[in-house]
Write a structure and sequence with these properties.
The protein contains nine helices and 21 strands. By secondary structure, the protein is an alpha+beta fold. Strands 1, 2, 3, 4, 5, 6, 7, 8, 9 and 10 form a ten-stranded antiparallel β-sheet that branches. A six-stranded mixed β-sheet has the order 12-11-13-17-18-21, with helices on both faces. Strands 14-15-16 form a three-stranded antiparallel β-sheet.
Length: about 450
């Protein structure tokens, strides 16, 4: 069976990137099989359980394109090597398959190099038994810029009747999107307020908290830029981390009636033994040696009550923290090779979320009795939120763009990351949510 020079639009997302027109991470992967046949694959990766690849190849001088669905998983092999693998399934021919030939889905496998602290160049195989003797390192993969992708290039993998083709054309700027021009005119009468509370000095989770803080600040600043609205941030972190400063930050908020307020907590969380409220308490002690009391902690529902009366059009309240006993520090050293289709955002979808929605959303990373896991890259919930948001506003997403869908996807992705498939020492975490947003359909 044959294969062609593989163009894989996939993303390494260890460092989360932005909405800017130049932030697209698309790669061309070239690989072959043992018979030296060449293959070209175009991979679109939304999340760990939702991806597809278009693979183009020649067989008996006939050009073929196959669609293969993909999932990913992490693990450790018998030799103790950490790996991340894409597993293909349900191959379907896009071009005519008159000879009725089958296609064995390809696997793509990355191994983690402990010396360089990086993931190496991937291997590929179509051996379902995954015998290492059948692994072939991909020939090359090259980063591509969306603005350099042509219609002719896309037509190698897609029919001109396919919705994915039209979506990719929009994403690559190959078709006019009047909404972007209109919406980028901006509305400076609106402001996006971000209250970021992060326990960045904590010895156990501080590194992950700092990573999430930087990524979330960057993300929402670029959301504001894309929408042409003002951005203001209020930060409680490092040596300023305390309940007093959190209350002060909330009290200093005076949003207008068309403003958006985002409150994000990233730190330890807990619940009292006799607590009936489902929401976690934020542990706001500057030091873990201090006593934890009502004066050094705050229930997430208190933030909800405070912001609800501030008068903003839209309030989003998120907490990436435990919801179990005091002093839990659930840190995993799992190294995540996270794939995500980080695309040029469809600003009409972004505008629907941030400018046409009215109400309040409250969500946290863990249900009562559960912990929320973190890595040095960030919390599973925070990473999943960014992943879900970017997927939701993607040109390539066909799901309704709504806050309810995004937060549901966040919870689902975080749970998936805490399964043994991705984290051998994690316990499952299931987030909770409350959504009351008009126009969220």
């Amino acid at each position: 069976m044959t294969r062609v020079p593989s163009f894989a639009a996939f993303i390494f997302l260890v460092q989360l990137v932005s909405y800017s027109a130049h932030s697209q991470s698309l790669y061309e992967i070239k690989f072959s099989d043992k018979q030296k046949n060449q293959y070209t694959g175009f991979l679109v990766f939304f999340n760990e359980t939702n991806a597809y690849m278009r693979i183009a190849y020649y067989y008996d001088k006939i050009y073929n394109v196959v669609n293969v669905n993909y999932t990913s998983r992490n693990g450790v092999n018998k030799q103790g090597d950490k790996y991340s693998m894409l597993t293909g399934y349900n191959p379907t021919y896009i071009t005519d398959n008159k000879a009725n030939r089958g296609y064995n889905p390809d696997y793509f496998i990355w191994f983690y190099d402990n010396t360089s602290q990086k993931w190496g160049t991937p291997y590929t195989t179509d051996d379902s038994l995954l015998n290492p003797n059948n692994y072939i390192r991909v020939s090359a993969y090259t980063q591509l810029s969306p603005q350099n992708i042509t219609d002719e290039y896309l037509r190698q993998f897609f029919g001109n009747y396919e919705q994915q083709y039209f979506s990719l054309k929009k994403m690559c700027g190959l078709t006019t999107d009047n909404t972007i021009t209109t919406y980028n005119n901006g509305n400076k009468s609106s402001t996006l307020h971000l209250v970021m509370v992060a326990n960045t000095n904590d010895p156990s989770i501080g590194t992950g908290c700092a990573s999430d803080e930087a990524n979330l600040k960057n993300e929402f600043r670029q959301v504001a830029d894309a929408l042409g609205i003002s951005f203001r941030q209020y930060t409680v972190d490092g040596s300023s981390f305390s309940k007093e400063n959190v209350v002060s930050a909330i009290n200093s908020l005076y949003p207008g009636s068309n403003d958006v307020v985002l409150f994000v907590y990233r730190g330890h969380g807990f619940r009292w033994k006799d607590q009936t409220n489902d929401w976690p308490r934020m542990d706001l002690r500057p030091s873990s040696y201090a006593d934890i009391t009502e004066n050094s902690s705050m229930n997430l529902s208190e933030v909800y009550s405070a912001l609800k009366n501030k008068g903003a059009r839209l309030n989003i309240i998120l907490a990436d923290c435990c919801n179990s006993e005091v002093n839990a520090s659930p840190v995993t050293n799992s190294n995540y090779l996270t794939f995500q289709f980080d695309n040029n955002s469809d600003v009409s979808k972004l505008r629907k979320l941030f400018m046409n929605s009215n109400g309040i959303l409250l969500s946290s990373a863990a249900q009562k009795g559960e912990v929320s896991w973190t890595t040095s890259q960030g919390g599973l919930y925070s990473m999943s939120f960014l992943q879900a948001l970017r997927e939701g506003i993607s040109y390539l997403s066909n799901d309704p763009c709504s806050w309810n869908n995004i937060i549901s996807k966040t919870i689902s992705l975080a749970r998936n990351k805490s399964t043994p498939t991705f984290c051998s020492n994690c316990t499952l975490q299931d987030g909770i949510k409350y959504v009351s947003i008009a126009g969220d359909y």
